[in-house]
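Student: Please help interpret what follows.
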Amino acid sequence: MLNNVAIVGRLVKDAETEPVGQENEKARITLACERDYKDRDGNKVTDFIDCEVWNAGARFLESYAHKGDLISVSGRVQKDTWKDRDGNWQSRTYIAATAVNILSTGNKGQDEQDQEEKPAKNNRRRK
């Protein structure tokens, strides 16, 4: 059997690690992943995929990744189920990451804005 997934998306917010026991750290992140098509109104459809990253990967994301960065995650789909305090069954499905990479930083929009604010050079020749 095979449970292997790879996704690429934009980080919804900065990663924050939390200690788990005395030796482990975990980061829960969400990636915004656009689909290849638009809805009836012409808007891009976006899925928000939850991921869980442990130890070195979690520390890496907390140190270097920021909201808006393009991130790749590979791992497996995992589903946890539990009973809440009221005795009702709850569940969540997420990607348990085995590898994460930063593909590009999220400042693309800022770069474009900076270009628009710079005055255009006049390339005409004087006669």
About this structure: The chain is about 15% helix and 55% strand. The longest strand covers residues 89-104. The helical segments are 55-64, 108-117.
